[in-house]
Amino acid sequence: MSPILPTRRGSKGRHHIHLHHCSSGGSHSRCDSPDRNLDLYSSPGSRSQTPDQAKSNNELVVCFGELLIDFVPTVGGLSLADAPAFKKAPGGAPANVAVGIARLGGNAAFVGKVGDDEFGYMLVEVLKENRVETKACRFDPNARTALAFVTLRADGEREFMFYRNPSADMLFETKELDTDILKAAAILHFGSISLITEPSRSTHMEAMKVAREAGCLLSYDPNLRLPLWPSPEAAKEGIKSIWDEADIIKVSDEEVVFLTGGDPTKDENNMRMFHPKCKLMLVTEGGEGCRYYTPKFRGKVGGIKVQVVDTTGAGDAFCAGLLSNLVKDPGLIDDEQRLREALKFANVCGAITTTERGAIPALPDRDTVMRMMRRPSVAQSSSTDPSWQGYQKWRFRNSTFV
User: CB count, 10 Å around CB of 9?
Assistant: First the structure.
């Protein structure tokens, strides 16, 4: 039996993190104990559910990828060198999505790796406090938790400086995967940062394979961070390497420009990215809302105007809003009205998150979202094309994703 490591107290002595060694042979990383978290594989009265039963009963979304510290300047519009101070904020796109889902009342788990250091312990504790399952988190004693310094422009947009070479998330190994939690998921959500280097790339691919074989929907938000890739060409190749595996794809308008070189406001351009197996593709446009594309219909759902402070995490909040509804109602992909309501909800989630600095601290709960959705200004017009299916057939014959 693996030895139990000593209990570790948080900086204020209020919280405990219990750790034990991973069962995977030869691994030097540590696993987080599930004792303070929800048991995904059982429910009251039944302690021996199968992963398939857990999938049905828990509506679980598993988020795979990076978990890091964002250092956000307390004053916007300044360079990193000129910023007087920084606010420490938990971050990492997949982790943001997991917390966002949990805060909206959903069931979420995070799969990833942090350093065996104070930041790593703090980050996992934040996930726990937000009711995110962390039993698949790993701690690496030989690498640090990733850090990112974020420059806020006057309009709230960001630029990044990363400290990771290598960080613990880059060293996540296949043998450290908790395959049971992947098999229990209804949706596996991931980005592209874990595709940049080995061994995390192979681990990412294995997680997708296990989830797909278990019947999961695969949700992909590339979350482009060019400074982390060796070159723009490598970023395009890496992002597109798993494109055709995803059932749900969310990209920003800026990412569309990067990937296609075309205009993200033109449906013809965006449909170059829509692969035959895709069930839903979304192009987000910040405060203007989002465009949606399915095999049956397409359209646009308008956004809402808020006072933007920091756009960090807005796209992740959008994903959380959508996935929290989709996991409860998978059929909404085939019903345009229900999909539009879910996207309106997701747009509001993203908008609220921009009103505060940092990602996780700004993610809203369901009551907050519903209150804002009742505002008259949230109802926006949209357009749909009744000849969409005919256009798709033409597009698949005559267009390619470059």
Answer: 12
Lowest mean pLDDT among 7-16, 132-141, 239-248, 303-312: 7-16
Residue 56 neighbours by CB under 8 Å, 6+ apart: none
Which residue, chain included where needed, has tokens 């250091």? 117
40-54, 249-263, 297-311, 348-362: which is most confident? 249-263
Query: Which carries the bigger pLDDT value, residue 37 or residue 262?
Result: 262
The structure tokens listed for 78 are 């300044």
Q: What's the pTM value of the predicted model, to 2 decimals?
A: 0.82
Q: Which of 30-39, 90-99, 316-325 has the lowest mean pLDDT?
A: 30-39
- One-character DSSP codes across 131-163: T-B-TTEEEETTSBPPEEEEEEPTTS-EEEEEE
CATH fold for the domain made of 60-67+94-143+170-369: UDP-N-acetylmuramoyl-L-alanine:D-glutamate ligase (3.40.1190)
The percent of residues above 90 in pLDDT, for the chain, comes to 66
- Render pLDDT for 341-380 as a digit per residue (tens, 0 to 9): 999 999 999 999 999 877 888 999 999 999 999 887 654 4
Domain limits, the chain: 60-67+94-143+170-369
Which contacts qualify for 362-370: CB closer than 8 Å, 24 or more apart? 362/310, 362/313, 362/317, 363/96, 363/99, 363/100, 363/103, 363/313, 363/316, 363/317, 363/320, 364/103, 364/104, 364/317, 365/103, 365/104, 365/105, 366/103, 366/104, 366/105, 369/104, 369/321, 369/345
**CA–CA gap between residue 164 and residue 144 (Å, rounded):** 8
CA dist., res. 374 & res. 277, Å (int) = 35
CA nearest to 16, candidates 27, 5, 28: 5
Asked if the peptide bond before residue 166 counts as cis, ω within 30 degrees of 0, the response is: yes
Beta strand extents in 229-381 (DSSP E only): 248-252, 280-284, 290-293, 298-301
Please give the C-alpha separations between residue 198 and each of 107, 168, 172, 280, in angstroms, as whole numbers: 30, 12, 8, 29
